[in-house]
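Continuing the batch. This is chain 6 of the set; chains 1 through 5 are on the previous pages. Same settings as before, nothing changed between runs. Recording input and output for traceability.
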Amino acid sequence: MARALEWSRPLDERTLRHAVDYATRSAEAALQRNEASIAVRIARQLGLAQPDVAAHRELLGRALAAQGAAADFVARNSGSSDPDTVDTLAAAHLSLGDLMTASQLWLSLARSDSSRADAFLSFAWCMVRAGNIESAEPIIAHLSRLTSHPKIDAVSMMIAMARLDYDAALVHAQRALAADPEAHVWLPLGPVFHSTGVANEASFALGMRLEDLSAILHLYEVGQHVQAGRNREAVAGADVALALVPDDRWAAMFKIMALMASEDKLGAAKAQADLAAATGARLDVLTRLVDLLFDASAHQQVVDLGRIVRERLPQHSALLSTIAHSASHVVEMDLADEILASLEPLGETIVKAGLSPFMVLAMTDDPALQRIASERRARILPGPTETLDVPMPAPPASGERLRIGYFSNDFHNHATLKLLTEALECTDRSRFEVVAYSYDAFPEDGERTRLKAAVDRFEDVTLLTETETASLVRRDGIHVLVDLKGYTGGSRLSLLKYRAAPIQVNWLGYPGTYGLAETDYIIADPFIIPAGAEADYSEAVVRLPDCYQPNRRSRTVVETPTREMVGLPETGFVFASFNHVYKVGGTLFAAWMDILKGVPGSVLWLLSKDPAIGERLRARAEEHGVDPTRLVFGPVMDNEYHLARYGLVDLALDTFPVGSHTTASDALWMGAPLLALSGRSFVSRVSGSILKAAGMEQLIAGSFDEYTAKAIAIGNDPGTARALREALVRGRDSVPLFDPARFAAHLGRAYEGMVDIWRRGEAPHAFDVASVDEAPARSVEVA
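Output for chain 6:
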């Protein structure tokens, strides 16, 4: 949504007048600096908002006339090599909105005459307008050392605003206006600086608000439809605007929001593609298209488009990391490795570009770098603009039930809920009141129905704003709010910035730190975050005694299929990894091939949604000297059929650095031993923790060499594999891993320990939860 914009009430007459004046002044400034295409867009938007105002039609006429003159000049002078004509040709293309051609003409002019600072500056202007900040920044830094010009400060201001550094942006505006009072023509928010006669924090904030309002005056009803969840009406209204103004980014955004809310992710990607075409394939728009395709899991399309965009934007690290992650999803391992190598040193890239914390989990096993990525992202999460008017609850009195809230959009048939539900069912209701706050759009299913029965109250906050949700949580008197999402798909992690509850916790949904000051605790265990590793987490570490992951005691499973039914050979040791394929990098795959070579007649059983992925993996196996038929692929299936397949698995193989989580506990519950490869990061140590809680610590490897050697040894000794399976099946009803009542008792103690610290007025700090096996049952604080 627009900054500081509320759709719940109509604009008052005074605000409307100011917004129209701002838009009109912006269009006039665009004409002055020869950007007629911008003036045309603004005039058409004003015409949609106020169709009866003659001044808007007159403005549009002048802007179209300027474009006509530019088109005429291009038609008469294209191909000229005269420097002055080339300069004017570039300006004409800018007037027409053709940023790419304009930028290339100015670049050719600058290259032919290195003294043409004006050509370099105009090229940088086009780059910023096209969203290519990385190309513009070094040019502007160099020009700033050589000379001064309002246009240099204007480009610097645009770069600062793109990086959300509004303090620096204001400094550039003040410098430009001090040197030249007419600099407002070039500056973002210039109409406000001109009308108020000053550039300060107040005028900057006013300009930001009017910038948004002026761009969406014609979309007020569309925005109301979006906020109210009337998605069909929102799309129809946005289409009316886009038919007249194809490059209307706000109209496209509202349409995309409505389509995403309707779960039409590919439709949203198409809308973004239409915008990319209408804006002359602006790189920032193309980047957004890549992001939408990624969100729609259209990974092959991301890779295909990414190859093109990557050539034009080789320094856009965040975009490159998205392309690399999609390449991993379609096992384009060489492309992924090539891109990841270009991002080194990774720490510097994370600081500069703000890579996705979730993607960084798969890039490195270094938890310190993962923390940097999370802290970088946490800084730009939106927070409250004013203090909530609902007070925070006081610490509970002795004997009062603790109120625990869980916040997620996975309260449906999802792995997180499958893990959590039985622990909630085993929660002591005499000590805890539990509320689930849900924000997903999934229809009711059996898993959600079971969850509703397991909690005291279920609140659907899908249509509430963060302010409204935080206020609701406070009114409910929640003492401990547990976020179950982190930096995963569809997350509303910014809610924690509103300090919805006195104690806020990171648990289960995201295997790493949030890097967010408002998150007080992270729940782990002694294996996942061992003593001495606390510095890699922004939260205070609370360790449960067994494993941080809850589990169900029972699962619904059909009869084990035959080997023939699933495409396995009649004989031979069966290795398997039923993880998402993006977790399989080149180094891990090479280790798997060494394992197959070391165990004659063995096969590797993998999941594949796409036959093309299977073919790529088989081709890669052949490159490693392994018969490609030794790779067997199975489809994605409903859980009861999927689990049944584990009855045919002799040894499940972990992935790295993103290891097996739910996949690990599923394998062990079915009696399939798992070989884990544990590193230093949270995400790589979960499978080891699960094995430890299942009494299978001997299956944890600490290096690729140990992992490979253990797999080959077990593969050549089927008796050991059978003994491991028998031990798992025999101990399933007694090991801590599959004891939800035990887990619920430990989790309750964790919450009580957090509340005790709060009651004492102490800052959150680390502690270990004592096991129910120990007496006295008290939490042990960690210095």
